[in-house]
């Protein structure tokens, strides 16, 4: 193996591993990132990128972000750009061979910035954050390299001035960081030419670089009115409406700028480091190990988050089988860990001497048992309703509402309001949330598609054409646009195609614009329990009955059941409906005349006998054993799934 190949092998292997992880583990997250972005092959779209400094960098970032719609391709492009960034970093700051892994520090920061975001992706503004910082960093390298290679003082000052003015206009803070690094490198004696500039030339270059970094944003601010003066030195960085999120998201970029400035400042020391022998053999591997550990630590990883994203994408395709498979899969994958945690919990509980101690032990192991988020349950119930299985299977799967693993709780409405409302036939509410999303975060592919779907359902052909025209200017959605444009002009054909044929049956009510107070689940429940009218479909009544059972309100259940029976033709009631009717009849001590199977009555008797014979010290301890035996019944849901928070 040649020395060149031997040196390149670790870098190539790292790039392949990163690409594989992004493609096969984070593919759904990449597709969702693309869905939340927008790039139009349109002169107006390009022209708008010049309305604020740094906007052109966002335009370029959006161009590449669209390729994340094909995860392996988008990941490949990004990894190649990162590989280029690492290689140019090593060459630009002249890293010695023993310290070459230091070139991976900026690359790791770019990876962490993207992959640590988690739920923050739903409130980002703009949505070109994925590629833009990487492109901006490459520009930083180019500015510094150009300034360091120019032999004359006036040439260096010219490069700094042009880079500051043109670069800031195109790429914002990334250009200024490159200018600052260029000045710092010159001051430290960094020059790629044989000529050694005098000390006064180096000081002048440094002061000039700092001066233009301050003055240029002030000058350009007078030419624009679409941003605040205080934001001038952060243009080009991701921005979020929540200040706490913004500070967290931007932190890796500030560290990135500081790292590159440090590289520029200590470049003369790298030559000295190469001459030393002590620790030379181990420096590279140690640096690489720290970088890998840091990246793994800050890489956001949560099975529920990925399941939510995958379920959302499957729901967009109306692939309800996949939605349910994802839900079952994430639950099953926790089974082994749950068994171990349960065995340990039993061992510790056997020595508990009080109820308080038992509750503390139960709480200690609580996080080791799988619980879905509310949005996962919402997608699961929606899929079961679309398949006509909800009243037989909704309560056979794990339920609950664990909080997001997130800096702050992102309201469910920000994630999926337009999607859930649209599929439940509340198309005006879906339209409202599309407008909210557009005003707050700007247009994206997903919003345009849902606006077009809304207009098609409402038979507003001219209105729909407005969105189809935009989608026609995209790379990956013009085919979708052509198909649905035809459907928007043919009501009969539209009503037979997905997703329209599955939405229309739920539109049998007096639809109106309202305010859900950002409580998507609560509003949906109230809608199905209160908004029914005389022309309600059986699909609507199925959903209403399911939501009545979820409300655990006995009166609501009987009302919804009567409506369900008035529009249905089933010979036998679904399993969960029988269980709820039998339980409520016993609780109210009334025989409502609802026929129930013997197996339903027997399972209730077994459930109550098990509860009465139990000797558990607290209800929390009882939960898992009861769920293992009766977790597929409505009885378990009624007694043990209570106080679930929605958001």
Spans where pLDDT lies below 50 across 5 or more residues: none
Q: Identify the overall geometry.
A: globular
Number of helices: 32
Side by side, the strands of the main sheet go 1-2
Radius of gyration (Å):
30 Å
Estimated share of beta-strand residues: under 5%
E-strand count: 2
What class do helices, strands and sheet pairing give?
mainly alpha
On the 0-100 scale, what is the average pLDDT?
91
Helix content range of the residues, please? Answer: 55-70%
Description:
- 68% of the residues lie in helices and 1% in strands.
- It is globular, with a radius of gyration of 30 Å.
- The model has no long low-confidence stretch (mean pLDDT 91).
- The longest helix is centred in the middle third of the chain and has 33 residues, at 243-275.
- α9 (173-187) packs antiparallel against α10 and α26 crosses α27 (538-551).
- It contains 32 helices and two strands.
- Strands 1-2 form a two-stranded antiparallel sheet.
- Among the domains are: 3-298, no CATH class; 572-647, no CATH class.
- By secondary structure, it is mostly helical.
Briefly, what is this?
The protein is mostly helical.
SSE order and pairing:
Elements: H1 3-24, H2 27-35, H3 43-48, H4 55-65, H5 71-92, H6 104-115, E1 124-125, H7 132-149, H8 153-171, H9 173-187, H10 199-221, E2 239-240, H11 243-275, H12 280-298, H13 303-316, H14 320-332, H15 335-349, H16 355-365, H17 374-387, H18 390-393, H19 412-423, H20 427-441, H21 445-457, H22 461-471, H23 478-488, H24 491-494, H25 500-503, H26 520-530, H27 538-551, H28 554-567, H29 575-588, H30 598-613, H31 619-630, H32 634-640
Antiparallel strand pairs: 1-2
């Amino acid at each position: 193996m040649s020395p060149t190949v031997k040196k390149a092998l670790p870098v190539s292997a790292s790039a392949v591993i990163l690409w594989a992880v992004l493609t096969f583990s984070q593919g759904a997250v990449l597709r969702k990132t693309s869905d939340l972005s927008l790039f139009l092959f349109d002169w107006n779209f390009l022209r708008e990128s010049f309305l604020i400094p740094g906007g052109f960098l966002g335009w370029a970032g959006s161009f590449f972000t669209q390729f994340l719609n094909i995860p392996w391709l988008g990941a490949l492009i990004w990894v190649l750009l990162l590989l280029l960034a690492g290689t140019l970093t090593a060459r630009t700051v002249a890293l010695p061979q023993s310290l070459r892994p230091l070139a991976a520090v900026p690359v790791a920061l770019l990876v962490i910035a993207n992959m640590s975001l988690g739920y923050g992706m739903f409130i980002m503004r703009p949505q070109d954050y994925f590629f833009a910082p990487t492109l901006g960093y490459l520009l930083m390298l180019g500015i510094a390299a150009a300034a360091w290679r120019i032999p004359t003082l006036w040439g260096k000052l010219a490069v700094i001035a042009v880079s500051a003015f043109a670069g800031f206009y195109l790429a914002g803070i990334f250009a200024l960081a490159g200018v600052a690094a260029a000045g710092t490198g010159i001051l430290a004696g960094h020059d790629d030419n044989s000529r050694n500039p005098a000390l006064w030339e180096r000081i002048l270059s440094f002061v000039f670089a700092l001066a233009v970094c301050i003055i240029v944003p002030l000058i350009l601010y007078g030419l624009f009115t679409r941003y605040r003066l205080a934001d001038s030195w952060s243009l080009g960085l991701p921005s979020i409406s929540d200040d706490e999120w913004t500070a967290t998201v931007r932190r890796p970029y500030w560290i990135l700028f500081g790292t590159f400035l440090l590289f520029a400042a200590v470049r003369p020391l790298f030559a000295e480091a190469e001459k030393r022998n002590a620790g030379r053999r181990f420096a590279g591997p140690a640096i690489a190990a720290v970088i890998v550990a840091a990246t793994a630590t800050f890489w956001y990883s949560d099975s529920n988050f990925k399941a939510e994203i995958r379920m959302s994408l499957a729901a967009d395709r109306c692939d309800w089988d996949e939605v349910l498979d994802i839900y079952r899969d994430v639950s099953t994958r926790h089974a082994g860990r749950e068994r171990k945690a349960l065995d340990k919990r039993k061992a510790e509980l056997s020595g508990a001497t009080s109820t308080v101690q038992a509750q503390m032990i139960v709480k200690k192991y609580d996080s080791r048992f799988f619980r879905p988020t509310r949005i996962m349950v919402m997608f699961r119930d929606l899929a079961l309703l679309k398949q006509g299985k909800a009243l037989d299977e909704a309560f056979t799967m794990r339920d609950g509402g664990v909080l997001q693993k997130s800096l702050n709780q992102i309201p469910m409405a920000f994630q999926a309001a337009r999607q859930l409302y649209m599929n439940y036939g509340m198309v005006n509410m879906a339209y409202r949330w599309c407008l909210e999303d557009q005003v707050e975060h700007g247009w994206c592919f997903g919003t345009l598609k849902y606006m077009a779907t809304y207009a098609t359902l409402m038979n507003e052909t001219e209105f729909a054409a407005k969105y189809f025209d935009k989608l026609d200017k995209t790379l990956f959605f013009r085919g979708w646009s052509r198909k649905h444009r035809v459907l928007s002009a043919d009501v009969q054909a539209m009503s037979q195609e997905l997703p329209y044929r599955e939405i229309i049956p739920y539109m049998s009510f007096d639809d109106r614009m309202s305010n859900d107070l950002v409580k998507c689940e609560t509003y949906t429940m109230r809608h199905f329990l209160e908004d029914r009218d005389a022309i309600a479909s059986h699909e609507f009544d199925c959903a209403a009955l399911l939501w009545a059972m979820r409300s655990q309100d006995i009166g609501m259940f009987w009302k919804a059941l009567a409506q369900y029976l008035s529009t249905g033709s089933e010979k036998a009631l679904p399993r969960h409906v029988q269980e709820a009717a039998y339980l409520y009849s016993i609780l109210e001590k009334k025989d409502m005349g609802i026929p129930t199977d013997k197996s339903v009555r027997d399972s209730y008797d077994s459930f109550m006998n098990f509860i009465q014979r139990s000797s558990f010290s607290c209800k929390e301890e009882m939960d898992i054993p009861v769920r293992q035996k009766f977790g597929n019944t409505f009885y378990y849901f009624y007694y043990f799934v209570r106080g679930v928070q929605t958001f």
